[in-house]
Amino acid sequence: MKNTGWKILTVVLLGYTVMGGMLFEVPRLNIVNETIRALYFHVPMWFGMVVLFLISMINAIQYLRNPSMERDIRSVEYATTGLVFGVLGIITGMIWANYTWGSPWHGDPKQNGAAIALLVYLAYFILRGSVENEETKARLSAVYNIFAFAAMVPLIFIIPRLTSSMHPGSGGNPGFNMYDLDSKMRMVFYPAVIGWILLGIWIASNRIKIRELEEKILSVEHENK
Length: 225
What we know:
- By secondary structure, this protein is mainly alpha-helical.
- The protein has helices at residues 5-23, 39-65, 69-100, 109-130, 134-162, 183-224.
- α2 runs antiparallel to α3 and α4 (109-130) packs antiparallel against α5 (134-162).
- The two termini are 36 Å apart.
């Protein structure tokens, strides 16, 4: 039963998010109305994605400094989970946009930037699949991982703020101000962010354990041949 405390906390936070998202009152904003409840899922998924990509990049840097299969596996699996969170963020955003903007894809700068950032990370996996030598694959993908994170930051956080965008926190509009997020919503939003980040780490940790077991099995089979 080691390290179960944070897993229990994850379940509690996500359960609280679901219940609070359905039951707590939300501000009555024009057009947005009840769809603002999507904030509890759409935005925390993006926070989770960024944290997972950050952890992946850190492991990539550590691999370049001291190469090991463990670092490579951790870097890959955190990037994989981050990409899944990013895709879920895009999908939930499209559903929300369909109700508030009238179409799933409005060509908003943050939408476009997020899509490009995910394509950059998708290329990371294409790169890994195109190289057969394990050491070369790990080294090249580690370098690319650093580039991918460096590209994601301006695409999602900087460029949209410099242009006209309908997203909060863009075009000079400060995000999560009194209009976007009142005190009642913060009671659910902040636990949701923590819960989704912990869920991403939990999923990535399980994938890492599976990969490490697979590598051990392959190593034993190779020795027995």
